[in-house]
Fold this protein.
Amino acid sequence: MTALQPSLACGIILLVAIWVCWISFSQAPAEAFLFPRLISVAFVALAGWTFARVLLDPRVAEGGITWTLVKNILPGVVVAGVYVFFAAKWLGFYTSSAIAFIVILSLYDPAPHDQVRAWLKRVAVTAGYLAVMYLLFSIVLKVFIPRGLFI
Amino acid sequence: MEFAAYFGEVFTVPAMLLLIGGTIGGLILGATPGLSPTMAVALLIPFTFQLEAVHGLILLGAAYTSTVAGGAVSAILLKIPGAPANIATTLDGHEMARRGQGARALQLAFLASLVGGLIGVALLIFLTPVLAEWALAFGPSQLFWLAILGVTIIGSLGTSSVVKGLLSGCIGLWLATVGFDDILGVQRFVFHSSLSGGISIVPALIGLFAIPQVIAMFADGRRMSSIEAISVERHPLSRAVRELLSRVRAVVIGTVSGSIIGLIPGIGGQIAGLVAYDQARKVSPERDKFGTGHPEGIIAAESANNAMVGPSLVPLLTLSIPGSPTAAVLLGGLLIHGIFPGTDLFDNHPHVAWPFINSMLIGQILMCVFGLYIASLAARVALVPKSIMAPIVLGLAVFGSYSVQHSMGDVYVMAALGIMMYFLERFGFSAAPLVLGLILGPIAESNFIQGSLIAEATVGPFAYFFGGALNLLLVAIVVASVGYSLYAELRARRTAVAGGDAP
Amino acid sequence: MKHVIAGLALVLAAVAGTVEADEYPDRPIMLMVSYGAGGATDFQARIVTMTAGNEDALGVPIAIINKPGAGGRVGWNWFATEAEADGYTLAAYNIPHFIAQSIKGGVEYSKDSFEPIANWGADPAVFIVGTESPFNSMADVVAWAGENPGKLTFSGAGLFVGHHIAALQIEKAAGVTMQYVPTKGGGAAAMKAVIAGDVMAGINNLSDAYRAREAGNIKILAVADIQRNEEFLPDVPTMMEEGLDVDNSSVNFRGIMVPKGTPDAIIDKLASIVPEMFMNSRVLGKMAAGGSPVHVMDREEVLAMWEERDAYLRELLKDL
């Protein structure tokens, strides 16, 4: 069943399209929703066509997600998600970036975790990254960055 | 030949230092994923407070020129365009970089930028009054058709199937309607407070391109690998020059469409690269190679987006109407220095206007020289391990989307769109048409509403939207573009069916 | 480890709290402008804050951040709901824009969501036509609009901004209906529509119109204010002189405000320094060069002006 995942993906898109269409046609004032209505009709038509084609002709189905892929990206996506949606605002940009950097580096760097040299290298790379960011953004360009408990 | 008299002011020590500094700084900022050219120019404005007006302008002009070209670096090496102008560059540029031809791609990009840029500035110098009239010929109805023309090229951008391209474009058009409706001020599709400001282009661009790349870097897990585990080929400059000369058609198409489209206020700068790319593909005998790492794709896109720089200043300098988001920031910088674009500028401040324009001419050359110098170094970015590159890009993405409007909401939107795009890409959808929809949606909508209001009061909708030579010409191009795409799709399917039954 | 971080955070927060009022400001301040770069509000905000870093002013620079969209609603909504009330987040206000929008509803702010600091300018709305236009006075415009009801198209920066208020007043005073065309992209886009001939006339800011007229692109027929503007447009009559009962309600007052909840000590400090900063000679020189009328008001005067505009606009917009 190689077409299962593509069918599911196209089905979800079709559902989103129908939902957008329903909202566009049910909300007032009509003038403000004229353009969304036009778009959503095309959106539903195209999504429907894509979905139907995948169902009727599994040969056009393409793409999919394997279990190995999920296992590989999951730790990184979770760390990135916590960093972006939560830590950046709570801890401040530089602090959270440094933590996210070293965690992601440790998760994906192939060097063994029981080696002191590998850890020293990770800390050094993180410090270098932080220094360059701070120099460029806060010293040279004087840009605002998200502030939290720390900077 | 008035302009030639003012070259002396460019070749003074402070002016040259600023020009060189602005060019190098602009290249670096433009090449940094997450920092858009508009942002880079905005960041430089406070620096100009301490300078004389003409020097401040030279700095801003140099930054404008070089950030647009610098954007090609991250577009090619990381598939992360710095601005909408660089989207088309990612399509072929990144494929070349994946094959280890990053240096060749970058050299071609900078050389093409130089040719396009010089011609664009030359147009600004010699034809400004004529071109200003042309820029004004685009009213609401013409801009509406132009946006529709942009929509018609959506389907053919970077996807395997036209329908999927159009569907991606529709998602983009829908996302563009989120937030306040720009004319009536009604809130639409706002389900979370982060969305009340709408989805701005820069955070969306970062999210849709950078985040899928970051996730893709995670995909290999803990294995020793650089971004692309292929050695970086060295590429002699002379070969790049010869290659550019042998692909004159792409250069001409890129430069011509870039200059024409760049002139049109409000839409030009954003889509010049994509339109040029699309045109270059349609007339090329090797059109099947586009999207697989074909040099013509880079040449057309990059010559167009630098050719756009000069003409986009025409409406700005003559009528005070900025032609692109970066030009708007530049206008802000001019006004602060008490320089008010318009005929006044050339009549009363020629010692400011001409050195500024001349400096952009010199700036194009400096941009190319420094760009080529860093090209071979920059190509080595491909050797940085993924485990380091992923968190760097992630941090820059957060910074870049936050700093445009100082809004965490933009950061959340960026990340959410990015995760969505990663999964969409897994199923054969692509980011380029989605972003194009996001850019063109508001332009099409607001011009349609304005046009309708005017039409209602005057000649009626049909006469308004289909009246006049320019409207008819644009409609004809739209029809031709759609027809061509359908024809190409049918032909492709016939070949696929003919060969598809074989095992 | 958790305790250490939490403890550290508490100490930092406590230290920050006591120091705040005395040492404010100790880092750069941001000023949110709810219109795009290159517009009148944007460049005036940049000029009046350019000396903020001087020792006799705030001593730290003010950085401008643009949050354009929907006639200013996007920026002010953000300012009312998300901006931190710590004194480091300021915004530019435009009266009557944000008050009129809050009366019409659909936004999350009202005049009570913000605390004014000081006013820097008052930019009246003017009625403009292209240089080729047959209209040479408001009388011509009113006569044509009377003969062709609803057919005279004229542009302005959006719905329920100063330009739209002026448009409503003109229509009411002359007893005619015309087609108001709001543009996306603020005063610059509305100006482009007039110069390019997309619309027959327009309403725009005095400062932008002054420069466009200097450049020979437009004619200015009247100014919607009580008195003529002697500094920049001494030859342009007021609407009243042209026989239209239009007062100064649409005059675009621009100034600086902070979100409700900002500590009083910080508001007081800003309110005492900022008006001085606006009066800096370098600032005044740059404002004059751009045709931007300066009108400095302190916090008390602005509070009174907000009250008065609010009452008037409620009356004007009641039956719309």
The first helix of chain A runs from residue 4 to 26.
